[in-house]
Design a protein that fits this description.
The complex is a heterodimer of chains A (about 120) and B (about 650). Chain A has 5 helices and 5 strands. Chain A has helices at about 10-25, 35-45, 60-70, 90-95, 110-120, and strands at about 5-10, 30, 50-55, 80-85, 100-105. A 5-stranded parallel sheet of chain A has the order 2-1-3-4-5, sandwiched between helices. In chain A, helix 1 packs across helix 5 (about 110-120). Chain B has about 650 residues and is an alpha+beta fold. In chain B, helix 14 (about 370-390) runs antiparallel to helix 18 (about 485-490). The chains are: A alpha/beta (about 120), B alpha+beta (about 650). The interface between A and B is medium-sized, with 16 and 16 residues.
Amino acid sequence: MPKTILAVDDSASMRQMIKLTLRNAGYEVIEAGDGQQALTQARQNAFHMILTDLNMPVMDGMVFIRELRKLPAYMGVPIVFVTTESDAEKKQQAKAAGATAWITKPFQPEQLVAVAKKVLGE
Amino acid sequence: MNPTNPQDIFKQEAQELLAQLETTLLDLDNDPGDMSLIDAAFRALHTIKGSGSMFGFDAAAAFTHHVETAFDQVRQGKAAPNRDLITVALRARDQMRLLIERPEEADPAAEEALLASLHQSLQPIAANASPSSREQTWRINMRLPRDVMANGTNPLLLLDELRSLGSATVTPLTDEIPVLQEFDPAACYLSWDIVLKTDKPREAIEDVFIFVRDEMQLEITPFESGAAQTPDPGAAPETEGLPEKTGAVLAGKVHETPKQEARQPQPAAASASVRVTAERLDELMDRVGELVITQSRLKQIAASSSDQQVRAVAEEIERLALELRDTTMGIRMVPIGSLFGRFRRVVHDLSRDLGKQVNLTMEGEETELDKTVIEQLNDPLVHLIRNSIDHGIEGPDERAAAGKAPAGQITLSARHAGTEVHITIADDGRGLNRERIRQRAIERGLITADASISDAELFQVVFLPGFSTVSEVTNLSGRGVGMDVVKRTIEALRGKIELSSMPNLGAKVTLRLPLTLAIIDGLLVRIGQARYVLPLSAVEECVELPPCDSALPGQCSFLNIRGELVPFLRLRELFAARTPPDRYQKVVVVAAGDMKAGLVVDQVIGNHQTVIKSLSKLHSGIEMFSGATILGDGAVALILDIPHLVEFGQAAEETMRDAA
């Protein structure tokens, strides 16, 4: 059974890139366009890892991470967020909210796979 | 020894460590580059030094320190492992042993010399070696934030990642685990101390912690041997420095990379066991022997009693006594591997001295044998192995010429065969020189020039006293101890020795030994008024003496058993029995080696559990008896020494033939 990853991003091209990369690496990927959608998805399905952007409409990544960590089923599930080099403050906030790891934009597909493998232990 | 005295415990522990160290060093000799073995040697040395200084073995600790330092340099990649170092280390090991066991005999000059050659054998690795490929040992102390697991980081994955960088020894520190009521299952209370040996740079280690680096406490320091000597409490890399209460947790939790685990040399004989002194074991065996004797008295009394209850109890006690006897004998059993292990050193040293390559293979090390037997086997086996290397195995050139592999092969094996244990020493050398043995035997008048004798008989000549003292006569001629001494030792253990050889293919010596020396199954017989015991293992069959054959007193004559002529001895005459003989005399046919003989007795009484008591010094010269036992009614019965009786019978037969 491949591990399932929830990819949360408001940019469809970003989601597409993430989906293709992770699928090629052997993961199942489910998409969500914002934090609210993602939370709904997370309640309905079990995910091995969450990959989320921080800047999103409706519910942003920071709130999403905090909400997700409140769900008992997601205690201990790795949450990776996407950040930028310039945003050191946001990185700290996201970690405080309960994120596990991050990936800095711009990134190469291989880097994304490497982070996923690292937090999933493969 | 005093089992509660720490010094004595240390001595015993040191003995085990030294044995382990020897094994490791010999393994290293086969593969000097194996870092896990270097590590194992270092650990053993470290413990000897550490405990030695704790218990007042200062000289040993000081000496060991130098050896430990040498191995530490190799471990850290500052010096290259090599065979010279291993040879010196083996000698140093012997010196340590001397310093611990008999410090008054230790020679400071020898110590100096050893240290000097130790220093010489350390080949520093060239400084221009590429730094990227150089292994370095790091000590990593990591303490993760409490909520790290809740936030999706699995600490085990981090440890796995560290292990993937090299070989790591991971020690969890449990000092922050709270009491159960306060325990949060999602919190991470453990921290870890990791000793990591890797050729990757420090950055690679830091990268492992990339996502948790800011929140965690991480110390990465180069691991020095100095750090190991002065562990700071609470964060020690080694288990002995940890608070005692964590010991149990550590036992289950200390992780090592699987590769390293597989290479861990087996501790020589580390088993969950209670130490009992050998004397107490012997004492126990004595008591069981007395019990068996008393029990047979009870059995006799019960047999003549009409009381059913007494009989029932007597039977029950018989069963218990026999079970107790078996258990006790089982306790005395020791795997022969403990003995075999020593020979690796003999082979290593001797093959080096003689410039031959020899591989020693050992089989059946788990075979168990009475500890008394094992103790006495050391010298004969050393002698036989020396013979094999010295005379059997050819030099590399000669082997090449004979189309053999350059390295000679010696196989030492042990296996159970019924109530015996067979130990064989086989080599693939040039074999015994049959012609030369024959020549020599004729010269010495042991056989006649025209005698046609089988190989087995001819090879027995090698075991005759005086034969082997002349050097270089046979492939198996010895140094110091002759083969006759080997044979005598084996026979004293009621064992047999057999020798076979194929020219150019090698020689094989088989030692056949009884499982135990303390109690045997015997056949009780009566001659005149006295009773005697024959070891049941030697008895082939019992027949009645045909009347016509008993007509010629004073002579040894022959019995026809299914077409085979068997000489028989009249024990009545030999033992000067004065009472009139029984009307029907019985013959017990016994075998010793390939020879058979009949022993004429008055009555065959039956099986008897024989607890062997050795004869006093005064009587030890009497070759016909190997011991004595006490019978159920308190009388003493002598145990017949079958090989000697058979020999005597054969000799008597020859004298008679010569006289005729």
